[in-house]
Write a structure and sequence with these properties.
The complex is a heterodimer of chains A (437) and B (303). Helices cover 64% and strands 7% of the residues of chain A. With 437 residues, chain A is α/β, with parallel strands linked by helices. Chain A has two domains: 267 residues, no CATH class; 135 residues, D-Maltodextrin-Binding Protein, domain 2. Chain B starts with a strand and ends in an 8-residue tail after the last helix. With 303 residues, chain B is of the alpha/beta class. Classes of the chains: A alpha/beta (437), B alpha/beta (303). Chain A: One of its GO terms (molecular function) is ABC-type transporter activity.
């Protein structure tokens, strides 16, 4: 046992000291924060400026109303001046001529765009309402510009225009737009999650946390699994392994490596967790007000299961990565063998949406028992709703039994593979090693 | 007492016999040479002794016990493929490898300082292994093998790739170890080293033992009818003499094996006057000659 400890100590100290670990530990959270904060900052930084939009209004009714709408404070810039100035154009010389002229103006940047409102936009065509009630054909008001990717602007203009058109139509029918607006006011479904502790409103946070935590387990297993594999390959290719094995058992070396690197992973997570707690306590003040971002909180039981499933998943895949490392001579060679293992990690990630949507379906329950999936899928189910404890316990037991089986199997492969150089063994040979060693 | 007893061990890799029914014993406190051409089965034998490869049959006793994990602490092993952790610092590497041999931290540190001093590597203690030259890494590897004061030291091709200075250093330390009562086994295909330091040898060829025993006795068996001739001139004619069984001609130096019926005294007069003789010595055959004869006359090349 103490020899395993020595191996763990070596792996741990050697790895914690590497630049990769230090940079990864520091930059990990910085990167995560940047990913969240930068878009918030960017979106709150105003790049908007006043612009003039030409309007060709063939109905002769909309321009005035639209101009009034866009004068409203919702459409104004921060300094209070108007965001959109409208300029009316009359097709006195014919529509085609006017279009050509407006085109010129847009290209010369005198106008940022022009809107072309056809004559029949206010008509309620008998044709359309009869054809498809659920999806009435949209009137084609044209928005012509040299760039049409500012969806924020398009949405604003579209909204204002729609309001004007709808109000006009209602008035034509003798209806009071304000009353109608009240009639068609929408109701929303408020998701309320029931747990044994009571009820809580859910504004999508559960979904996000489940998703992120499951992704963290996935990433961690993938990254640290590769670290194990690389370590085994390095020991093999530097030929130090025979020296080490003249002092201890292959099993001790393999387990020491897996445990040591796992300890590094836990260290990294602990640092990040502390960092996260610090950030949630002090960090909220850095986020610009009105950014519509709340620090999600992670329930204690979810955190406990996160640690459990991370550790178990890490062991299960760690043994596989160690065995693969022992079978190959170079990292390049390893890539082919790693594919199936990576697939076991990717499949549950692809199933995540399904599990989040139907966490209690029999397929979800079944999948979350499969040991190669359960570190991600059972954990995911726990975050979405708490499955019966029997199910959680069963999946953990299955996982632990599988891990023991895998350790037993991979130790045999490792024991022989680690001292084999040259040609990669065939699957039949590996099976023979397992049977006869 | 025997430090190592090997009895009838065999190992097959697929259809290939790597070692076949091999037996030998090594008395404690001696230096033992495991000889054989490349691919004869020396490394496989050593790996079986180290319990890295399990023999198909036969038994191995190390220091009168079966080789197990505990025994590994009493044995020092230098593998044929040298290797160290390149990213580790010299001092840390030695500490780790000494500790997994069962040495306590404080004892290990003392030994590390002693050996680094002895091999003139003290200045490199806090340097990374990969910064060391090849020769220095070889020294380091040797320290790793002996740092835990093993009773049995197993060296697989210890002299390959060494310069003459390190060769002498290693040889001196091996003899020192012998004086302290340690047992040393080493494999090689370089005969001159074996002749200098080995008490006993075992010659393996094609997985099987062809010769085993005390070195001086073996040489005596091969008789007193070998002549070492140091000469100048054209000596090709000697080949045609009826007394000759075999000649190894090096141009200015010749190892002549005579037929059992002839005497070196009869040969000398026939040479006088035809070539200029600097030295005419009657002696036991060199191990190299025995080796070549036993392995089938094929030239053995140094690596």
């Amino acid at each position: 046992m103490s020899k395993i400890l020595l191996v763990i100590k070596r792996e741990y100290i050697q790895m914690v000291r590497t630049k990769g670990f230090i940079i990864g530990t520091v930059l990990g959270p910085v990167f995560m924060i940047a990913l969240i904060v930068i878009p918030i900052i960017v979106s709150s930084v105003s790049v908007e400026k006043q612009e003039t939009i030409g309007v060709v209004d063939l109905t002769n009714e909309i321009f005035m109303e639209l101009d009034k709408k866009l004068d409203h404070k919702d459409y104004r810039l921060k300094d209070g001046s108007r965001r959109y100035l409208l300029e009316k154009f009359e097709p006195s010389a014919g529509i085609e001529e006017l279009r050509r002229e407006l085109r010129e103006r847009v290209l010369k940047k005198k106008l940022s765009a022009y809107i072309y409102i056809p004559e029949d936009v206010l008509e309620i065509g008998a044709r359309e309402s009869a054809v498809r009630e659920s999806e009435p054909e949209e009137e084609k008001v044209e928005y012509v510009s040299d760039h049409t990717t500012d969806f924020e602007k398009l949405r604003a203009l579209n909204g204002a225009l729609n309001n004007v058109v709808i109000e006009k139509r209602l008035k034509r029918e003798g209806l009071d737009p304000q009353k109608v607006a009240q009639y068609i006011k929408r109701v929303g479904l408020q998701p309320i999650k029931i747990t044994k502790k009571g009820e809580e409103k859910d504004s999508g946070g559960t979904f996000m946390i489940s998703y992120i935590l499951a992704l963290i387990i996935y990433m961690a297993i993938l990254i640290y699994g590769q670290v194990i594999m690389r370590g085994v390959i390095e020991e093999k290719s530097s030929r130090v392994v025979e020296v080490v094995l003249s002092s201890l058992k292959p099993f001790q070396l393999m387990m020491g490596k897996i445990l040591g690197i796992g300890a590094v992973g836990l260290t990294q997570f602990s640092i990040w967790t502390l960092f996260g707690i610090g950030a949630s306590v002090y960090g909220t003040s850095f986020i610009p007000a009105g950014a519509n971002f709340a620090m999600p909180s992670i329930p204690a039981h979810v955190f406990v299961y996160f640690v459990i499933f991370f550790i178990l998943g890490y062991f299960l895949f760690g043994t596989l990565y160690a065995a693969i490392g022992s079978l190959v001579n170079s990292e390049k060679e390893a890539q082919q063998l790693v594919m199936p293992v990576t697939m076991f990690l990717i499949i549950p990630i692809m199933l995540m949406i399904f599990i989040i949507r139907a966490p209690n379906s029999s397929l979800a329950v079944f999948l979350s028992f499969i040991p190669f999936f359960s570190p991600i899928l059972m954990f995911l189910r726990i975050t979405v709703l708490i499955p019966p404890f029997g199910q959680i316990g069963a999946s953990i037991v299955i996982l632990i039994l599988t891990i023991l089986l895998m350790i037993w199997l991979t130790a045999k492969i490792y024991r022989i593979g680690i001292l084999m150089y040259g040609k990669r063994p065939k699957l039949t040979e590996i099976v023979r090693w397992i049977r006869y060693s | 007492m025997n430090a190592l007893e090997i009895e009838g061990i065999s190992k097959k890799f697929g259809d290939f016999n790597a070692v076949k029914k091999l037996s030998f014993e090594i008395p404690a406190g001696t230096i033992y040479g495991l000889l054989g051409p490349n691919g004869a089965g020396k490394t496989t034998t050593i790996r079986m002794v180290m319990n890295i490869i399990i023999p198909d049959e036969g038994s191995i006793k190390v220091l009168n016990r079966r080789m197990d994990e505990e025994m590994k602490e009493r044995v020092g092993y230098l593998p044929e493929d040298r290797g160290l952790y390149p990213k580790m610092k010299v001092g840390e590497l030695l500490l780790f490898l000494a500790e997994i041999k069962g040495l306590k931290g404080s004892d290990a540190r003392k030994e590390i300082d002693f050996w680094l001093e002895r091999f003139d590597l003290s200045d490199w203690k806090s340097k990374k292994v990969e910064e060391l030259s090849r020769g220095m890494q070889q020294k380091l590897q040797f320290i790793v093998t002996v740092i835990h004061q093993p009773e049995l030291i197993i060296l697989d091709e210890p002299f390959s790739g060494l310069d003459p200075v390190n060769t002498k250093l290693f040889k001196d330390i091996m003899l020192e170890m012998k004086k302290k009562g340690r047992t040393i086994v080493f494999s090689t295909h370089r005969m001159e080293q074996v002749e200098m330091i080995c008490d006993n040898i075992c010659l393996i060829n094609k997985a099987e033992r062809v010769l085993e025993g005390n070195l001086s006795q073996i040489k005596k068996q091969y008789g007193k009818n070998t002549v070492i001739l140091d000469y100048d001139g054209e000596a090709d004619f000697i080949k045609d003499f009826p007394e000759i069984e075999k000649i190894d001609d090096y141009g200015k130096f010749m190892e002549i094996k005579l037929k059992e019926t002839s005497s070196p005294q009869d040969l000398l007069p026939k040479l006088v006057g035809k070539i200029s003789i600097n030295k005419y010595e009657v002696k036991e055959p060199t191990l190299n000659a025995i080796f070549i004869e036993k392995v089938g006359g094929k030239e053995v090349k140094d690596e």
